[in-house]
């Protein structure tokens, strides 16, 4: 269980009444960070592997028993970050990249000398068993889907700026025809075959899922995007009620789900490499390591 359960309101209110990090009063000293933040880290949804890593491993490993992780959502985390950043107030969030926040704000990861958060992860495409036989062209396209973090962040940026995810995906696809043609190489057009893609409401997965939806529809598929939590996403592909997902963070974030359903899905491998996760702070904060949180 997480050490503290709080809703979006708590996450947004976290930054209220906190002294500016660069003020004379705080002096940006390490030993005052916990008190300034009331020993709270702004988290995301409770089903995220990043939350489990932070609560079950990072806090105990670094002796941060007096710290708590506030449950919320990716949107609540981003709102709390913006509120603090605009006022140059201190804040610590559970963060990951690629994510649009790194292009909007000057942020840094706190060093993780104990290696709790591991190295860079991959984002994999996972398909239900039998998809290759039932929908060989969709399978081939999904297997060939591969892009870079900057591609994903561009789509995420469009969405963050107010563009509907469907329109953002269409804009990106139209501007990246050469890359998209690599995904569709050897793929035949179909006539209205139906596919169901499952995804979680994380900014990166929203971006990738809508881009894949757009490209699949361009070759004739009728795609239904279904938003679910991480557990049901994996369960749906494993039991065949969903055809595929393109947002499996491995080997750490979704480690438990991978182990639980192994043998009941097909792993098509990474569609994006070079991710990172951990605790993130604004660059103006005079703190560099998770170890600095221990008083």
Automatic annotation (TrEMBL):
<dbReference type="GO" id="GO:0031460">
    <property type="term" value="P:glycine betaine transport"/>
</dbReference>
<dbReference type="GO" id="GO:0005275">
    <property type="term" value="F:amine transmembrane transporter activity"/>
</dbReference>
<keyword id="KW-1003">Cell membrane</keyword>
<feature type="domain" description="ABC-type glycine betaine transport system substrate-binding">
    <location>
        <begin position="195"/>
        <end position="294"/>
    </location>
</feature>
<keyword id="KW-0472">Membrane</keyword>
<keyword id="KW-0732">Signal</keyword>
<protein>
    <submittedName>
        <fullName>Glycine/betaine ABC transporter</fullName>
    </submittedName>
</protein>
<dbReference type="Pfam" id="PF04069">
    <property type="entry name" value="OpuAC"/>
</dbReference>
<dbReference type="GO" id="GO:0043190">
    <property type="term" value="C:ATP-binding cassette (ABC) transporter complex"/>
</dbReference>
<dbReference type="GO" id="GO:0015871">
    <property type="term" value="P:choline transport"/>
</dbReference>
<feature type="domain" description="ABC-type glycine betaine transport system substrate-binding">
    <location>
        <begin position="35"/>
        <end position="174"/>
    </location>
</feature>
<dbReference type="InterPro" id="IPR007210">
    <property type="entry name" value="ABC_Gly_betaine_transp_sub-bd"/>
</dbReference>
<feature type="signal peptide">
    <location>
        <begin position="1"/>
        <end position="19"/>
    </location>
</feature>
<keyword id="KW-0813">Transport</keyword>
<dbReference type="GO" id="GO:0015226">
    <property type="term" value="F:carnitine transmembrane transporter activity"/>
</dbReference>
């Amino acid at each position: 269980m997480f050490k503290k359960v709080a809703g979006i309101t708590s996450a947004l209110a976290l930054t209220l009444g906190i002294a500016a990090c660069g003020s004379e009063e705080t002096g940006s000293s390490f030993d005052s960070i916990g008190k300034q933040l009331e020993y709270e880290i702004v988290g995301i949804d409770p089903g995220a592997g990043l939350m489990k890593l932070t609560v079950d491993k990072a806090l105990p490993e670094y002796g941060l028993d007096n710290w708590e992780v506030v449950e919320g959502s990716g949107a609540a985390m981003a709102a709390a970050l913006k509120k603090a950043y605009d006022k140059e107030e201190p804040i610590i969030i559970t963060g990951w990249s690629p994510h649009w926040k790194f292009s909007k704000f000057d942020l840094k990861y706190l060093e993780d000398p104990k290696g709790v958060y591991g190295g860079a992860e991959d984002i994999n495409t996972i398909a239900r068993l039998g998809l290759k036989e039932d929908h060989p062209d969709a399978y081939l396209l999904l297997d060939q889907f591969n892009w870079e973090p900057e591609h994903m962040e561009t789509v995420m940026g469009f969405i963050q700026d107010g563009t509907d995810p469907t329109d953002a995906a269409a804009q990106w696809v139209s501007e990246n025809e050469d890359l998209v043609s690599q995904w569709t190489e050897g793929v035949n057009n179909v006539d209205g075959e139906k596919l169901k893609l499952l995804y979680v409401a994380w900014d990166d997965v929203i971006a990738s899922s809508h881009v894949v939806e757009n490209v699949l529809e361009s070759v004739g598929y009728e795609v239904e995007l279904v938003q679910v939590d991480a557990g049901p996403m994996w369960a749906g592909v494993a039991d065949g009620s969903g055809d595929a997902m393109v947002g499996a963070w491995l080997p750490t974030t979704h480690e438990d789900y991978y182990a639980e359903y192994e043998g009941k899905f097909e792993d098509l491998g990474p569609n994006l490499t070079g991710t990172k996760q951990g605790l993130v702070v604004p660059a103006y904060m005079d703190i560099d390591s998770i170890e600095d949180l221990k008083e």
